[in-house]
């Protein structure tokens, strides 16, 4: 080599060896051939109690709007800053997996609790909702022991280590496919364990490594390139120049003294010079040079001088000079130049330098994210399973630029039990095994481990948690909602609040309470959610908190009937229903209205309710309205003045309407077909409201309105089978509530005084089609709109509505629009979520989250809140079931009926057969009679005759000419049709009498008096024959049969 080349070949060889071992990590591929270092005392002394902590991950919750990897980096950096190793354990049992994360102390003298707290708090902070179960020391020991204990043989399990640099496969992170769920799913059905160990590298060590790479780079870079340069240059130049110059000078001098001088000078000179030369050079290895010059010259000189001077001289002179110069120059240059440059590059050195650059970049990033010594160890019963799992994991982790270091797999099996046992001892301490490196590299490196140096960003790939659910570990995506209740005015001081629950954030309940402004509930509340989502518990909690603030409630429940099993047992709660065997029967007359309400406005509201509940077309609403007006007029009402001729106003019932409707229809000018249609549509529906339990409910003997509308009251309509009837009953209750508030509330914009719960509100407030048919307007839509507006306007009277429904799509849109507070529980249907989500300022992700809400968790929003919040509603635990004591009531009713019938029939019975009725309390009978569902006119006749009995001991109804009227009144107290139907299959009159007598005992007690029974049966038959002409023949035959046996 030329003396100019200062490079040394030995330096290149040594640098190559170092780069091969410690840049490309070639030594990793031969770890199994090297000896395992006996476990040092400082590692041997590591114990679970003092140095290891593990958490079992039972649920993972991700925020889909945040980068999961970046959050993992923060968590791992927290652990690294606390100078602790990071541990991740995956234990697959074939059918399901257990995932553990934890820390191990590096310094045996330092407590592990700091790192444990740091990991737990950081994990909970970055992944709120994720559930970490802190394992006890005994549980940790059991987990570690089970990792290495073989269930098939006494031999140790096979251990395979994976070493390499993890990297992202998709740098743009459009999709993440490197989660541990890929490994778990790939190895589904296999039993294996994976232990991930990452030990932090201290900044001082990082700086030394960085400096080592720089030194190695400096040693290699001179050998990367060699340049050779060759050049040659020829040139020729000719120059000629001519110059002439003439100067004349004239000088006159006048002197007072004389001077005489004479001189002569002559000279000649000649000179000639010729020069020739050349130069060449080779810069890298050698240099040679030549030069030659020749000169000739001749000079001749001759001088003669004479001088004679005397006296003193005075000089006066004049000088004149002229000069002329002429110059000419001509130059000609010719040249030729040639050069050659040769560059040599050592590609092996270049590739090594690029890898070192990559390593330097990775180390540089470790200043931000930390540097870790990381490896993964797979443990299985057999080598095949361990290697397959390791290979799968290796393929998942490798990505762009993973080739900066070799990625290798090493397996220790029972072929060399000593090494396997020593490796196992290291891993039971959750520490990297130490391997003695037997390589002569000129460095003092006593041992290495299977770990490779990776920065915090790469560690987040290596320790990537599952991104999707796997067997045994649910992985959920959650959306963030508000963490506090903030209002626009943010001035809630002094306002009464009711607590509903606690903030629910990312799958976990927090300590922040969710409270509602009590007075805001007067602007109504809408609660929705699918079956089993927690709607009922939400209403229970809300009503319980309102009751504690002395706010009474009315619950109208058309389904399930569960409220009475929660609140019905309270002493301050009234319960009414539609089945008298289960609860007190609700009784209400739709045609009654309080003072202060005009009869015509009440009729208009009533018609709108019929329109909302019944399908009405053409002139049906007008006919129904006319029939209702005539029914009022028949009861003595002046419709224009809204006054009644009686001192105590009389109101019609559905029975009165049933009598009036056919008259109105038949007197109309419609065709016979149209009349038949109207009769079928209207009369049939009204008739269904006059019989059975419904007929008993629509009675003029009303339930006290104070109990219904001013106390705590539960109305159970769940036993009504007809949807139309349910809606009608709800509408009537709503109308009566509105009129009650209008009549008894003196001020406007009243504070919240009372709340009404409308369960399954779509029965009444159903969304209708806005299209208008040619024959009729959209009556049902208009009626529903009127009801919705009535609800909205009732807030001015201090009445708040809680509208509950599981199907928002079935409700009129105004219900959602006009409610200030919205509570949304789990809703699977997309259209339902959109209906309520858009009214609650939810974004698309939040609306999708509503479909996955946990039972009892709801989105809550009020119109003055800055954002909706997720709330876990408090569980209501103070249920007091309703127990109805109906036997006593039934016995009392039966006794009262029996007493009245005995009194009515006494005048038709022979004296010797009469019962002793002197003990009867007639005034109690009158009071009971006033509460019964009997037409007012008939009730008044009965009461008048009872007063006659008190005064005279007799009744005018006993007169013979009034028997038909007596029979009608007596038959009112028993179900005539049921009695006759029961006896219909009898073979003869004797059997018929026995069967009717047996049936009568279910309803009245005539003290086994045959005379009273026979008279009562005659009354029943007389009443029935009046209604049915065909039955008269049976009645007369029965009379003949009875007369033959005994006299009547």
Automatic annotation (TrEMBL):
It comes from the Bacteria. The keyword Isomerase does not apply. Transmembrane segments: none annotated. It holds the Pfam family DUF87. InterPro entries: HerA-like (IPR008571), HerA_central (IPR002789), P-loop_NTPase (IPR027417). GO terms for molecular function: ATP binding. SUPFAM superfamilies: P-loop containing nucleoside triphosphate hydrolases (SSF52540). This is Putative ATP-binding protein. The lineage of its organism: Bacteria, Bacillati, Bacillota, Bacilli, Bacillales.
């Amino acid at each position: 080599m030329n003396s100019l080349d200062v490079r040394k070949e030995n330096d290149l060889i040594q640098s190559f060896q170092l780069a091969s071992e410690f840049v490309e990590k070639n030594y990793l591929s031969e770890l199994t051939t090297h000896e395992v270092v006996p476990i040092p005392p400082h590692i041997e002394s590591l114990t679970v109690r003092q140095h290891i902590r593990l958490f079992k991950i039972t649920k993972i919750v991700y925020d889909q709007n945040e980068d999961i990897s970046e959050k993992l980096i923060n968590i791992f950096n927290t652990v690294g800053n606390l100078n602790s190793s990071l541990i991740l354990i995956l234990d697959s049992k074939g059918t399901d997996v257990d995932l553990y994360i934890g820390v191990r102390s590096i310094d045996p003298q330092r407590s592990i609790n700091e790192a444990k707290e740091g990991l737990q708090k950081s994990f909970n902070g970055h992944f709120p909702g994720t559930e970490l179960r802190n394992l006890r020391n005994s549980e940790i020991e059991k987990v570690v022991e089970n990792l290495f204990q073989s269930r098939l043989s006494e031999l140790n399990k096979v251990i395979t280590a994976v070493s390499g640099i993890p990297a992202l496969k998709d740098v743009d992170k459009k999709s993440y496919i490197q989660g541990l769920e890929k490994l778990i799913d790939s190895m589904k059905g296999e039993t294996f364990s994976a232990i991930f160990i990452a030990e932090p590298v201290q900044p001082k060590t990082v700086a030394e490594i960085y400096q080592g790479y720089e030194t190695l780079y400096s040693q290699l870079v001179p050998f990367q390139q060699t340049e050779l340069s060759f050049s040659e240059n020829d040139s020729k130049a000719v120059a000629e120049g001519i110059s002439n110059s003439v100067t004349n000078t004239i000088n006159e001098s006048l002197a007072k003294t004389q001077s005489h001088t004479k001189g002569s000078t002559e000279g000649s000179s000649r000179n000639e010079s010729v020069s020739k030369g050349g130069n060449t050079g080779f810069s890298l290895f050698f240099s040679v040079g030549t030069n030659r010059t020749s000169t000739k010259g001749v000079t001749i000189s001759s001088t003669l001088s004479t001088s004679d001077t005397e006296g003193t001289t005075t000089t006066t002179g004049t000088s004149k000079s002229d000069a002329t110069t002429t110059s000419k120059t001509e130059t000609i240059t010719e040249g030729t130049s040639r050069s050659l440059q040769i560059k040599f590059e050592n590609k092996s050195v270049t590739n090594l330098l690029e890898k070192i650059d990559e390593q330097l970049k990775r180390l540089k990033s470790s200043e931000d994210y930390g540097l870790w010594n990381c490896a993964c160890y797979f443990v299985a019963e057999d080598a095949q399973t361990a290697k397959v799992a390791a290979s799968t994991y290796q393929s998942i982790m490798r990505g762009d630029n993973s080739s900066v270091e070799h990625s290798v797999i090493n397996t220790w099996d029972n072929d060399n039990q000593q090494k396997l046992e020593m490796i196992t001892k290291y891993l039971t301490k959750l520490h990297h095994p130490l391997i003695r490196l037997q390589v002569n590299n000129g460095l003092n490196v006593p041992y290495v481990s299977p770990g490779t140096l990776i920065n915090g960003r790469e560690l987040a790939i290596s320790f990537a948690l599952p991104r999707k659910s796997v067997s045994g570990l649910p992985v959920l995506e959650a959306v963030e909602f508000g963490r506090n209740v903030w209002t626009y005015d943010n001035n809630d001081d002094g306002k009464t609040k009711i607590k509903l629950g606690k903030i629910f954030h990312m799958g976990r309940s927090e300590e922040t309470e969710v409270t509602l402004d009590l007075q805001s509930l007067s602007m109504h509340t809408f609660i929705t959610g699918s079956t089993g989502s927690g709607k009922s518990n939400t209403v229970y909690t809300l009503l319980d908190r309102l009751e504690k603030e002395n706010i009474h409630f009315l619950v109208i429940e058309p389904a399930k009937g569960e409220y009475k099993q929660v609140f019905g047992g309270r002493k301050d709660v009234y319960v009414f229903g539609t089945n008298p065997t289960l609860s007190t029967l609700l009784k209400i007359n739709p045609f009654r209205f309080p003072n202060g309400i005009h009869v015509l406005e009440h009729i208009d509201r009533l018609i709108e309710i019929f329109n909302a509940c019944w399908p009405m077309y053409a002139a049906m609403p007008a006919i129904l309205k006319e029939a209702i007006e005539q029914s009022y007029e028949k009861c003595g009402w002046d419709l224009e003045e809204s006054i009644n001729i009686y001192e105590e106003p009389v109101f019609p019932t559905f029975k009165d309407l049933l009598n009036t409707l056919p008259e109105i229809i038949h007197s109309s000018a419609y065709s016979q077909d149209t009349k038949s249609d109207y009769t079928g549509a209207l009369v049939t529906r009204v008739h269904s409201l006059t019989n059975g339990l419904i007929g008993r409910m629509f009675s003029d003997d009303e339930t006290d309105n104070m109990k219904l509308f001013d106390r705590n009251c539960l109305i159970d309509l769940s036993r009504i089978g007809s949807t139309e009837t349910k809606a009608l009953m709800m509408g009537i209750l709503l109308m009566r509530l509105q009129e009650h508030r209008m009549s008894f509330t003196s001020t406007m914009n009243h504070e919240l005084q009372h709340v009404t719960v409308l369960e399954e509100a779509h029965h009444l407030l159903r969304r209708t089609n806005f299209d208008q048919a040619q024959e009729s307007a959209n009556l049902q839509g208009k009626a529903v709109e009127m009801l919705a507006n009535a609800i909205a306007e009732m807030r001015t009277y201090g009445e708040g509505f809680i509208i509950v429904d599981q199907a928002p799509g079935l409700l009129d849109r105004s219900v959602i629009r006009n409610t200030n507070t919205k509570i949304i529980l789990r809703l699977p249907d997309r259209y339902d979520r959109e209906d309520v989500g858009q009214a609650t300022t939810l974004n698309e992700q939040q609306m999708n989250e509503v479909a996955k809400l946990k039972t009892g968790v709801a989105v809550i929003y009020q119109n003055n809140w800055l954002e909706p919040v997720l709330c876990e509603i408090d569980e209501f635990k103070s249920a007091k079931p309703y127990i109805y004591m109906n036997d006593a009531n039934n016995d009392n009713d039966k006794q009262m009926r029996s007493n009245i019938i005995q009194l009515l029939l006494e005048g038709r019975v022979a004296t010797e057969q009469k019962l002793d009725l002197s003990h009867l309390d007639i005034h109690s009978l009158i009071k009971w009679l006033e509460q019964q569902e009997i037409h007012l006119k008939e009730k008044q006749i009965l009461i008048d005759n009872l007063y006659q009995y008190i005064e005279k001991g007799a009744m005018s109804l006993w007169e013979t000419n009034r028997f038909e009227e007596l029979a009608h009144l007596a038959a009112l107290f028993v179900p005539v049709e049921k009695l006759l139907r029961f006896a219909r299959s009898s073979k003869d009159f004797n059997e018929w009498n026995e069967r009717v007598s047996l049936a009568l005992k279910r309803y009245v007690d005539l003290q086994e008096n045959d005379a009273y029974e026979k008279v009562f049966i005659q009354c029943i038959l007389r009443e029935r024959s009046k209604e049915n002409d065909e039955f008269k023949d049976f009645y007369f035959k029965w009379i003949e049969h009875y007369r033959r046996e005994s006299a009547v």
